[in-house]
Fold this protein.
Amino acid sequence: MAAQPAVVAVLDACVLYPPSLRDFLLWLAAGFVYDLRLTDAIHDEWVRNALENHPHLTAGRLARTRALMNALSPETLVTGYEGRIDGLRLPDPDDRHVLAAAIHARASVVVTFNLRDFPETALAAFGIAACHPDAFVVGLLDRPGTGSQVVEMTRRARLNLKNPPKTPAEYLEMLDRNRMPKTAARLAKHVADL
C-alpha cells in the first residue's frame, strides 16, 4: 500500500505563542508527522506577543527558536505569497496573510485556536480547512501510518524537557492545560510508551 501524502499545515501565531504547545507541535513536525509551513509575518506576531507578555524572554533567544523552526525543512518558510492577500476575504482582514500562505504552500490545513476567523465558507474553495490544534493532533493520531509517530515524538518531546523534567502524566497534564484535552486523553492510552 502506498504511503499517504503528508499533511501540510500552516500554524497560526496563536498556537505558536504558548511555548509548551509550540514545542510539542514542532517535535511532531521534526518527526515528519506533518509538514510545517510558516511565514515571517506569523513569526513576527508570536515573537512580538511573547516579548510583550514575558519580560524574561529576550529577542535573541526567540530569534534562535525562530531559526530552528525554519530549519526543519527547506519548505518550512513560505515566501512569495503576499500578492494573494488583497484578494482574500476573512472576518479579520489581519488574518488574510495566513490564508494566503496556506494557498501558496498548497497546505490542507490552517491550525488555529481562532476558528471563527477562518470560516469554512472562505477556505473551502481553496481545499483548506481550519482546525483546532487539539483536533489536528487527534487527526494525526487516527491517520494510518502516523499514530505511532505521534506517540514516539511525544516521548521525545517529554524527554527533552530538563528544567524541570516531566513524568508522562505531568506532560499529559501540560497538554491538557494548553487546550489539548482530547490529545492528552488519547495519548494517555499510550502512557507506558511516553
Notes: The domain at 8-143 is CATH 3.40.50.1010 (Rossmann fold). The chain has a mean pLDDT of 95.
